[in-house]
Fold each of these.
Amino acid sequence: MVEIQENVSLLPYNTFQIEAKARYFAEINRKEELFWLFAQKEAAYSTLPLVVLGGGSNLLLAKKAQANETVVYPNLFLKMNILGKEILTQDEDSVLVRVGAGENWHHFVEFAVEQGWAGIENLALIYGTVGAAPLQNIGAYGVEIKETLVEVEAFEIESQKVKCFSNQDCQFGYRDSIFKREAKGKYLILSVVFRLHKKPNFRLEYGAIQEELKKENQSDPDSLTLKAVSQAVMRIRNSKLPNPAEIGNGGSFFKNPEISQEVFQKIIKKFPDLVSYPTENGRKVAAGWLIEQAGWKGKRVGQVGTYPKQALILVNWGGAKGADIWEFATQIQKAVFEKFEIWLEPEINVLT
Ligand code: EPU
């Protein structure tokens, strides 16, 4: 059985700290509960579109309110709380570990680092849950989870069967996977299997990590530890990203756009300082740089703004409405387009 609650405040479930309500809301603690839930064919919520909540750290509740009323989403919201970490197999080189979708991502990174398991130490302090991580192939400081992810176990809503997606099946891309495209809304992620390594292969190509390690006299590769790397990442993140417990935000709001070589050549002539790096198909441009150059870094309209230390982060300075944040984001898209002819795509999941 699952307790279905009604008119539940979503404030604790979104890191943008937007006040909105879910008409129906349920917490899922075990996968068996899903079989029960989807068997309730007569229930009022049975035909409503689902919204799946992980940590709510990549979600903007952007629906417009009627006059001064609180926004109510007519949907059934499912908060995925399935916990557990289980070693499936291990040998001297690596460990295969299954992690419940509801586990906190950062706590899992800390756990892996403590065990001496390498591969995700650069991904410390990313907010959200393990189950949400594959959706957008979370990444930071030169590492993405597609490098250690082996399999995703998911509940298929239509067939009510549990299905496994191999790494390849997930069709990972930059902040992208099949779960954001063809499989969107069709599956509930139950657990994720990772292969982590017992011998670290430190990934320090990101200049900021090297500088941070140097500051702490930890730059000697022979004595470097997973803990030192993860703590360096945490210090970098803390120094430029707002803590959502204090300032509402959803991390990077837009993706870093990828442009063709042709477009790049055109832009670089006019803007020689453009921050970008090569990719397979062209160049990836730093969206934060574009926003800053368009004059929007640290800008504030009412209770919405860009974070003064990182223009790619939109923040709720307190009591902002989701629709206002979305409107502000649209203004940024237009301003960047006017200046650079590049249209920024949201990285965040916008629920209107
Ligand atoms: N920049 C500016 N002005 C700004 C912000 C950035 O000029 O206001 C420039 C920086 O100087 C730097 C470049 O843009 O040269 C890149 O900035 P940064 O290193 O802060 O990384 P990012 O590209 O803005 C991406 C991810 C982050 C991830 C970092 C580190 C995306 C959309 N974002 O940000 O991920 O932590 O790299 O790897 O890819 C997230 O997805 O929520 C997230 C925080």
Note: The radius of gyration is 21 Å.
Amino acid sequence: MNKEKKWLLWGLLLLMGAVLLTGCGKEKKELEKTSVRIGVSLYRGDDTFINNIRMEMENAAKAYEQSGGIKVNLDIQDAKGNQNTQNNQVERFISLGCDVLCINPVDRTAASAIIDKAMAAQIPVVFFNRQPVEEDMDRWDQLYYVGAVAKESAVLQGNIVVNQYRQDPSSLDTNGDGVVSYVLLEGESSHQDSLIRTEWSIQTLKDGGVPIEKITGGIANWERSQASALMEQWLLQYPDTIELVVCNNDDMALGAIDALDRTGITGISLVGIDATVPGQEAVRSGKLMGTVSADKERYAQAIFMIAAAKALGREIPRDIPLEDGKYFWCPQQILVNK
Ligand code: GAL
């Protein structure tokens, strides 16, 4: 082959390469989505913490639309505490052609029915806040979970009390009998957070050297009104005895505060978990000794960013580290009135 022919051949090869490359680029651009549809089902739309997460998810979607040029259709539904309703919502999301589902399960042990439907339709699912059992999470590599580590929330909550006791024992042991007498308000018995929070909160008090004695406890299902009723009953049953109210969440602490306000009783300390908007307000006003704040912006952003990446067939961003490739644990911190 003479020199001229060789150059011609090289030129031709380069041209073919360029045509192929631009062709592929075009095809890729045509396949790239310009909008995503995300189906979200909340176990209960009237839950304060879940509502705060919902708001942050809406903010994350708006910010994403503005910065990424992708239209986001966030279809948020309330399952109103009914698993059948939630299953129907999932079916509807699938028939509407959702690219991904974000599910806050009503019954975390019944996630398999949702997983069956999602797997059949090949639609990834981001569960959040109510953790499906491990066997369910292991069924498919397109299942994710976003939440806060229950033991961490509890240890932080316990530390609020430990710190306070170390600074000023008499602020908790108000009758000076050498023990802090407490009552416990617990969340739903079926929720992974309730048991673990209760166990580790109390363990942290013991480990931290706070002399404690349990008066009584009860399940108020995360609800302000149920907690308020229980607290009112305990105040009557155990007059001048309760020094501390350990609450599995802020709403129940606020319920207990409602009961204190109604009866005019003062001098009892309360701790919560969540740092909901009203919870933060109660800390600021001094009615709540402290609470534990899961970074709700980060929490909601993780749910949204995993969902958006899955919907677009992209990699999950590196700043959302996933344990075992599927669990995102939201950072938490103590919030007290300084
Ligand atoms: C907990 C939260 C509660 C309630 C519950 C619902 O993590 O602390 O306030 O929102 O989730 O599943």
Note: Residues 47, 49-50, 129-130, 191, 193, 222, 249, 251, 273-274 surround beta-D-galactopyranose (CB under 6 Å).
